[in-house]
């Protein structure tokens, strides 16, 4: 029987398998490296894009902050101007009310009654004076009630005093001035008897 040596064949087969394994390993490594490069490039591109967006958003945020600051300043300036406007309007309204109050006092003041103090606080007016009788004070209050510019006359105090050897009634009363916008269309009523008539216009 002739002996057969299989060692070279097995060695060649083993070497071929090793070469195939090395080839597959190298190919796998190359494919893996390629995938890593592709993924890295994709992620780098996404990161750059996101960074660009972030920079854009930051710049827009700075612009918006500046605009918000400007709007706040404009609001503050507007409020300041409105406050000044209200002050001017209040001063003009108070001046008009003072003139109207003096006119009404002249119109509504009956004979035998003399004023010593008129004090205005807002739309409230305190009036103090002397009258020859209680009836004169009652007439004044009725005249105020009939006026479209004065309302809510309220007697605080009336007492008998002696002034320059004459017995007089010292009175203290409060009234309220009505706003022009509420009474502008209201015709003025005639004062009660005893009040002086307004001077006739000369033309």
What does this 3D model show about the protein?
It is a single chain. The chain is of the alpha+beta class. It has one domain (25-194): General secretion pathway protein M, EpsM (Gyrase A, domain 2, 2-Layer Sandwich), CATH 3.30.1360.100. It is built from three helices and four strands, in the order αββαββα. A four-stranded antiparallel beta sheet has the order 1-2-4-3. Strand 3 (150-163) and strand 4 (166-177) form a beta hairpin. 12% of the residues are buried. Residues 180-187 and 195-203 have low confidence and may be disordered.
List the keywords.
203 residues; alpha+beta; Gyrase A, domain 2; four-stranded antiparallel beta sheet; 4 strands
Short description:
This protein has 203 residues and is of the alpha+beta class. Helix content is 59%, strand content 21%.
Question: Could you say which overall geometry the principal axes of the C-alpha atoms support?
Answer: rod-shaped
Helix content percent band: 55-70%
Second rung of CATH, namely the architecture: 2-Layer Sandwich
Number of strands: 4
User: CATH superfamily, called what?
Assistant: General secretion pathway protein M, EpsM
How much is the average pLDDT?
Answer: 79
Gyration radius over CA:
51 Å
Largest sheet: 4 strands, antiparallel
User: What name does CATH use for the topology?
Assistant: Gyrase A, domain 2
| String of helices and strands | HEEHEEH
Poorly predicted residue ranges: 180-187, 195-203
How widely separated are the two ends? 166 Å
Largest sheet strand order? 1-2-4-3
CATH class: Alpha Beta
User: Beta-strand level of the residues, as a percent range?
Assistant: 15-25%
Structurally, how many domains make up the residues?
1
- Count the DSSP helices: 3
Structural class by secondary-structure content = alpha+beta
């Amino acid at each position: 029987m002739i002996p057969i040596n299989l060692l070279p064949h097995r060695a060649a087969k083993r070497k071929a398998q090793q070469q195939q394994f090395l080839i597959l390993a190298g190919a796998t490594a190359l494919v893996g490296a390629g995938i890593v490069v592709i993924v890295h490039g994709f992620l780098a591109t996404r990161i750059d894009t996101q960074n660009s967006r972030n920079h854009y958003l930051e710049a827009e945020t700075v612009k918006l902050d500046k605009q918000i600051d400007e709007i706040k300043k404009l609001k503050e300036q507007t409020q300041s101007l409105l406050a000044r406007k209200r002050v001017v309007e209040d001063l003009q309204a108070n001046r008009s009310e003072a003139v109207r109050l003096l006119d009404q006092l002249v119109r509504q003041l009956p004979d035998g009654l003399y004023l010593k103090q008129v004090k205005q606080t807002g739309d409230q007016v305190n009036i103090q004076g002397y009258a020859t009788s209680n009836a004169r004070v009652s007439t004044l209050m009725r005249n105020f009630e009939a006026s479209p510019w004065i309302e809510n006359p309220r007697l605080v105090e009336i007492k008998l005093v002696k002034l320059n050897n004459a017995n007089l009634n010292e009175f203290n009363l409060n009234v309220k001035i009505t706003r022009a916008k509420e009474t502008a269309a209201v015709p003025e009523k005639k004062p009660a008897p005893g009040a002086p008539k307004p001077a006739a216009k000369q033309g």
